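Example A, followed by Example B.
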Amino acid sequence: MGICLRVGESLRPGGRACQFGAEGTSPRHQEEAAMPEETPVLLSRDARGVVTVTLNRPQVGNAYNEPLLRALIAGLDALRADEGVRALVIRGAGRHFAAGADINWLAEVAGYGPERAYQCSLATTLAMQKLNEFPRPTFAVIQGACFGGGAGIACCVDVALATPAALFGLTEVRVGVSPTPISTHMVHAMGLRQTRRYALTGERFGAEEALRMGLVHEVLAAEAMEARLAAILDETLLSAPGAVAVTKDSFLGANGLKLDDRQMALLAHEGWMQRASAEGREGLAAFREKRRPAWYPKD
């Protein structure tokens, strides 16, 4: 029998995938059919306490919008408080992992007032930070597009696995903004030298390059992915939960990766200001109109 959760409820072992943060019927497995728009984040949990979080907007490559961010934040908060959770696996429904921000949503945000626009920017920053500081081991299984905030998720998990066809990109600068919500995490995962190249040029890069830089830990054929993930999870479950939480917290603290409210607010404010800037507006318009932005040199 499937279950669906209200915010604050626990996900019991054996529950099938469902939306977090709203009521609804239990949808089928992500491979059977695309889930309705009302279920942007799906959670399922096995008997061992391994929770799968599925980003569920396959019709737009799992690009995130405000409902997805809010559902992800609520889900992470509830799972953090659940001592029965032993590990977290993040997946993308359909062909892609996560294609970054939904460009149509960004167009909507451009029409918001300052406070609401800032809150949307803050939600992006907060979702990344909550994932980064989640006290249990976190994994990402990456296929297809992994751009912008999707690459940010890869930076924030403890173990990132990718298929050979996965494609990565830090492409925010091409639409006139900076990847401020994920900047700290990118430098930590990829190193400053590599981040400077890819965050400034907006170049896309493949799974082998991501492996070379340390953004992902292993590149695996699609047919080998599940067995390898299961093996790593089995090793992980041998680790004491309390020791894991303390170890992770100490690593993050020692490397300046635990952001306080003020730091997150500054990142969110910078992100909002850039979206509202002339470059941000032109970059968004150029992307939607499938043309080069005005700052590209004329012939």
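Example B, a separate protein, is given below in the same form.
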Amino acid sequence: MSRTNNSSSTNDLVSLDRMAPALAAALGDDRWLGVGAQLISGGKSNLTFILACDAGELVLRRPPTGDLLPSAHDMAREARVQRALSGSGVPVAEVVLSDDGALLGVPCYVMRKVTGHVVRSTLPPGYANSASAREAMAWAFVDTLVAIHSVDAVMVGLGDFGRAEGFMERQVRRWGAQWESSRTEEVAEMTELGRRLAARVPAPQPGAVVHGDYRIDNVIFDAQDVGRVRAVLDWELSTLGDPLADLGMLMLFWREAGEPPIELIPGVTHLSGFPSRAGVVERYAAASDLDLSALRFYEAFAHYKFAVIAQGVAARSRTGAMAGQSFGDLDGQVRQLAASGLTRI
């Protein structure tokens, strides 16, 4: 059954008068001429829509409205990496259409909808309701990250997808510059954290494909098999670089029992039955053979990077660029993230 548009504002963001014939042509199916669109809530950076008609459902990704940070919201990059990883052993959604701006006025892409569970702040009823099932979920999630880092970038056509040499130095500079572009006040903790990171970059790991935002709500779990990841989502920050940058982010996202929640980071790993951070690191280390002795640096960097992301979301939300979504007190969250990062370096 077709799903109708949410509102005229949704139609403005999706431009169905141009998107519908483009989909019909790309898929060879005129039923897509009757497509409708609905915003999926929960997106913090780019906007995600379900496109539906009698032929089925697809997913559209596009940048938010308003001014965009340099190098952020790169839809062409997302589409390219998903196409390259198709068949690699890393589960990704099939991209059916990508556009450089002719359809919506901004770059966008459309992928097939992958069925399964996106787990945010709660588990679906009856899903992974035992300790063994939750452990299976966790190990599937960690093993998928190892699979990403094990991809031969040259073999899949991503040899020029980034420059692994000097990756962490550039990352510290990049996110520092984006902080300066989006901050609304001086935050002493962010200044000090940025200074320490720049001064203490460790020796690099062998270069790999990195996701850039690998967390539990950026994968789709199989609805019947808790130990299977069906697709990895949200590749906008992917590149070639230091794989421990992903593991450091995962440590930030992997909340344990009794820890305070962080705005913008939903999760269930604090629930009974999920492994600890130490268990996750042990699983990753056993499969990857990387030197994890400097992991605390990467954890500190993760706090810094996510604080900048939170500041950017706060700025866009204030200007109405997030399609009316609200995300709470992100300014306070920025300071909390920076302070926590300082304890790790």
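On Example B: The two ends are 54 Å apart (CA to CA).
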